[in-house]
Amino acid sequence: MTDSMLCESLASARRRLTEALVSAGRPTDAARLLAVSKTKPAGMIREAWSLGQREFGENYVQEALEKQAELADLGDIVWHFIGPLQANKTRAVAEHFDWVHSLDREKVARRLNDQRPEELGPLQVCLQVNVSGEASKSGVAPGELEALAEAVLSMPRLRLRGLMAIPAPARDIASQREPLARLRQALEALRRRFPEAPLDTLSMGMSDDLEAAVLEGATLVRLGTAIFGTRDTSRR
Ligand SMILES: *Cc1c(COP(=O)(O)O)cnc(C)c1O
């Protein structure tokens, strides 16, 4: 993808998000764009940064660390870890990311809390919820969410911001909305249960279901393909 193509696709992703917010009757700043840059080179991230994009999502720890090193001069860039998180990778994530969206186990939370360096602020976290049942192996089961949230809220180096989901693919917007509505309701229930917690984030909506996610209250949409083009899956 050339620089001018990236410029166009980023502009059209921004337009798409704004239009979705307007159609949903929400303020145009009610959701922001997370640019998912997995498998894409550091040069593309730098180009998107030069076009004003600040928040980037990565799925693979080693790949992300390499790109972060190349982009260390971009001081105000914000890194989100959105991939499956194994316990043996927590230190790198605690030291090199601002956000984690894929937290679904107390053991991993404890490690992140213990390993978050003092000189950095708390790590911003979303709990990943398995809203599609059998279809997904990742994410905490809805029935175990409250207990996990309570545990995370007791960890001083983590700041619980909200929930994330990757629903099973669905063809039409009505079936896309069902699991996303469940995630919204789960966040509403947590807010009632923990009124003091800073639970302001619904991380949902990808290139194929952005409109459905915005209708259901997404505040952070994670777009990869729509911004950076299709991924070369043979690289992984
Ligand atoms: C890859 C990925 C995305 C982006 O998906 P697209 O369909 O390319 O927009 C969003 N969220 C997560 C967790 C991902 O792994």
Helices and strands in order:
Blueprint: H1 3-23, E1 32-36, H2 42-50, E2 55-58, H3 61-70, E3 78-81, H4 90-96, E4 99-103, H5 106-115, E5 123-128, H6 145-153, E6 158-164, H7 173-193, E7 201-203, H8 210-215, E8 220-223, H9 225-228
Parallel strand pairs: 1-2, 1-8, 2-3, 3-4, 4-5, 5-6, 6-7
Helix pairs in contact: 4-5
Bound molecules: pyridoxal-5'-phosphate (PLP).
The site of pyridoxal-5'-phosphate has 13 residues, from strand 8 and helix 9.
Commentary on this structure:
The protein is of the alpha/beta class and 236 residues long. 41% of the residues lie in helices and 16% in strands. It is built from 9 helices and 8 strands. It has helices spanning 3-23, 42-50, 61-70, 90-96, 106-115, 145-153, 173-193, 210-215, 225-228, and strands at residues 32-36, 55-58, 78-81, 99-103, 123-128, 158-164, 201-203, 220-223. An 8-stranded parallel beta sheet has the order 7-6-5-4-3-2-1-8. It is globular, with a radius of gyration of 17 Å. The mean pLDDT is 96. The structure holds pyridoxal-5'-phosphate. Residues 36, 38, 59, 82, 166, 206-208, 222-226 line the site of pyridoxal-5'-phosphate.
